[in-house]
Prior knowledge:
By secondary structure, the chain is of the alpha+beta class.
Amino acid sequence: xxxxxxxxxxxxxxxxxxxxxxxxxxxxxxxxxxxxxxxxxxxxxxxxxxxxxxxxxxxxxxxxxxxxxxxxxxxxxxxxxxxxxxxxxxxxxxxxxxxxxxxxxxxxxxxxxxxxxxxxxxxxxxxxxxxxxxxxxxxxxxxxxxxxxxxxxxxxxxx
Length: 159
């Protein structure tokens, strides 16, 4: 990602300083990072399921556990793995209309869970978008949200 520099002038110094701080945030510091946008709705990541929002109604994680017990396996079978090349990525995740806090968890599979990089975090309340930065190495990964139980969507990094 390209850093943006703002000149500081007497008039508007506070605004310019605020913009400069945003431009030099940790996400901006991830030079040349590629942004992957993901939207969470009830019990799913929309982009991971072919852009289809199934419109699941949920008020808690238990609702998703029941929904995924019925349809998760079939939905996951239809999901195409996200295929990336090694490098720095920003996973920009949004909570769209889920009425409780969510998170994001990307990790390697099998032995890769120990040897491959990962990223996780919470704080995704309704309407909030958050960035998760990671430098991916070749291997097989999955990503999900344990707080809004989703399937473990596949991600492959080919080097």
